[in-house]
Amino acid sequence: MTNSALATAAVAAVDLVKVYGSGPGAVRALDGVTVGFDRAAFTAIMGPSGSGKSTLMHCLAGLDTATSGAALLGGTDLTRLPDKALTRTRLDRIGFVFQSFNLLPQLTAGENILLPLSLAGPAHDRALYTRLTEVLGIADRLRHRPAELSGGQQQRVALARALLTRPEVVFADEPTGNLDSRAGAEVLGFLRHSVREFGQTVVMVTHDPLAAAHADRVVLLADGRLAGELRDPDLPTVIEALRTAGAGR
Ligand SMILES: Nc1ncnc2c1ncn2[C@@H]1O[C@H](COP(=O)(O)OP(=O)(O)OP(=O)(O)O)[C@@H](O)[C@H]1O
Question: Boundaries of each ABC transporter domain copy (predicted)?
């Protein structure tokens, strides 16, 4: 990948290294990863268990520190930001969707969606709030608490929350891991839709080839290194690429 392509990417890792622990027991979870994630594209990160997917996402999202290299968000190197600026950057510029939804149980769905805006401070974008809740099919569920919603509805609330701040990137960590196949397909369909309608950049870690086949591109990791990529993937090519990445270990 050229330097200019990395510079214009929404998110990029440049020679990213992450070592956990020290001495003989040290684990090199990322071993010099250089990869860019395009704007307004949906990219899936895949690879065998332990290949470094979560570590890569956590370093790119400023949730974990790197040992060396750069984690660029729109040209800002998160590895060099002081704690306070990093927290601010996460609130203002990054959206998160987790496998376990991570909604606050005592707040209603609507209050959960609005929470990052009240923390980040920008004016409440009423039009986007209305649009997102309509597109996600949760407009009539906003007064309910998470426990009164299905898993799929809870994840759609989490998606609305992640998108409402118009973040530069949404990181989704196994967003369909706790959902049945129908609810999972709805969430993936919406992630795609957010790329098309809102120009959202989405980076998703998943084990599921079916989920990855919804993406515009699949980036493969093996043993903490980049092991290939697929453009416009479909299910058979994802399965075959995973088999090859796993076999190369
Ligand atoms: N906090 C930690 N301390 C020590 N080693 C860690 C830590 N977190 C991850 N690792 C190790 O780093 C390597 C990469 O882990 P990572 O969780 O990034 O892989 P992954 O591809 O997301 O795996 P999975 O698909 O199983 O979730 C693994 O060998 C893992 O055991």
Answer: 11-248
- Give Cα separations from 201 to 34, 54, 166 (angstroms): 18, 18, 10
* Boundaries of every domain in the chain: 39-53+81-247
Q: What is the spatial distance between Cα 229 and Cα 122, in angstroms, rounded to a whole number?
A: 37
CA 12 to chain centre: 13
pLDDT in tens, 9-28: 999 999 999 999 999 999 99
Q: What is the ipTM of this complex?
A: 0.97
Using a 6 Å cutoff on CB, does residue 52 contact ligand 1? yes
**Residue 27, ligand 1, Cβ within 6 A:** yes
pTM of the model: 0.93
**Closest of 243, 244, 226 to residue 45, by C-alpha:** 226
Ligand 1 close to Cβ of residue 58 (< 6 A): no
Query: What is the CATH T-level fold of the domain 39-53+81-247, as seen in this structure?
Result: Rossmann fold (3.40.50)
